[in-house]
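Handover notes (outgoing to incoming on-call)

Open items:
1. HEAT repeat domain-containing protein: sequence verified, structure written out, both below. Nothing else pending on this one.
2. Nothing else urgent.
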Amino acid sequence: MDQDLKKELSHDTDGLLTYEYIANHIGQCDDIMDELVDNMNFVDGNGQFVVSAARYLHAIDHERYAAAIDRLVALAIEKDREHRYLPALIEGLYGADYRMRADELSASDDNFRRIYKRIQPSDAF
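HEAT repeat domain-containing protein structure tokens:
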């Protein structure tokens, strides 16, 4: 990440600037995606923009951005203690019918299981 970008993103107080940078430079910032995720981790205290970034990258190309998505999902689980954003994340990544496929998804996807356990504790596996 060059110094100008580091300076610009140093003004990010909640993750929005970093999320906007990713969205506006998708395909051009792949080589610094880890640093961008690191910055979101540092500045996004409640996971709002971490979740947005994970959903965005998943929609763009979930295979290409799998490593970044996995990191963002793990951060979202950690940061969204009030579960304000996790329901949108689980639906955005697994579809509106995720509840009907909960057993199958839980068996094959650790991130799904971890999110589901937090938003549906009585149904947890």
